[in-house]
Amino acid sequence: MKKKYFAAVCKAFYLLFLMVGSNLFKSQMKGSSEIKIAYGLGTTTDFINAFSSIFTLGYGPYEKRNSGAFILGYNYTIQDKWVIGTDFLYQQITREYPDHVLQKSHNYTVAVKSDYNYISKPKFRMYSGVGLGLTMEKSRNPSESISHFNFHLTGLGIRLGGRLGVNAEVGFGYKGIGNVGFAYSL
Predict the structure, then answer these.
(1) pLDDT, mean of residues 132-151
(2) Residue 119's CB: how many other CB atoms inside 10 A?
(3) What is the DSSP letter of 177?
(4) Cis before 142? omega within 30
(5) Element (H, E) at 37
(6) Is-contact 132 109, C-beta < 8 A?
(7) Residue 52 burial (C-beta neighbours within 10 Å; 0-12, 13-18, 19+)
(8) Residue 141 confidence (pLDDT)
(9) How far apart are CA 111 and CA 173, in angstroms?
(10) Mean pLDDT along residues 145-162
(11) Taking the CA atoms of the chain, what radius of gyration do you get in angstroms?
(12) Averaged over 46-61, what is the pLDDT?
């Protein structure tokens, strides 16, 4: 009788511990934030440049150098699986015109974004998301300043690690077809 009673009490405490522990973990996820640093290739700016070269039949500028996209992001978890945040990107592109004049442009993108975590474990997250922003292109020789709206669709994103982790995303938009980087939870 004592063994059955003791086993029942132990099971009840174990279940209570699991329920309270999981609720505490969920409440820690909500309200958490992180900073991301990443590098991406194949941005929408790259696609715009490629299509403009095709449509000018080779008489327009062609891309000579491309730095890729350097990404700095901030994420804040507002619900257990719903994240909002901002992205800041920098990309430098050098174009050469048919008369051998070089044009170096500095592209800055500022965007807001939202991600949804399909899987949200302590050391593994899998998510998709969308971002909307503004890209400003500044260049000299000739001096130009162009702005346009931009977007990013993250088809699949993965984050591995605890407080300091690595992340990788596949999608299309201002962060590129693919980007990889580091994330640090604050």
Answers:
(1) 85
(2) 11
(3) S
(4) yes
(5) strand 33-41
(6) no
(7) middle
(8) 67
(9) 11
(10) 93
(11) 23
(12) 69
Q: What residue has token string 């949804």?
A: 116
pLDDT band at 95 (very low <50, low <70, confident <90, very high): confident
Q: What is the DSSP string of 41-78?
A: ES-HHHHHHHHHHHHTTT-S-EEEEE--EEEEEEEEES
pLDDT of residue 22: 44
- Tell me: the pLDDT tens digits for 71-89? 999 999 998 889 999 999 9
pTM, rounded to two decimals: 0.76
**Amino acid 25: pLDDT:** 42
Separation of CA 84 from chain center? 11
Give 150's Cβ-side CA count (13 Å radius).
Answer: 29
What is d(CA 70, CA 43) in angstroms, rounded to the nearest whole number?
11
- Inter-residue contact 117 to 126 (CB < 8 Å): yes
The CA distance from 160 to 121, in Å, is 10
Return the structure tokens found at 14.
Answer: 């174990």
Which amino acid would we find at residue 21?
Answer: G
Which pair of tokens denotes residue 141?
A: 């020789």
Q: Which residues contact 151 (CB under 8 A, 6 or more apart)?
A: 44, 130, 131, 132, 133, 173, 174
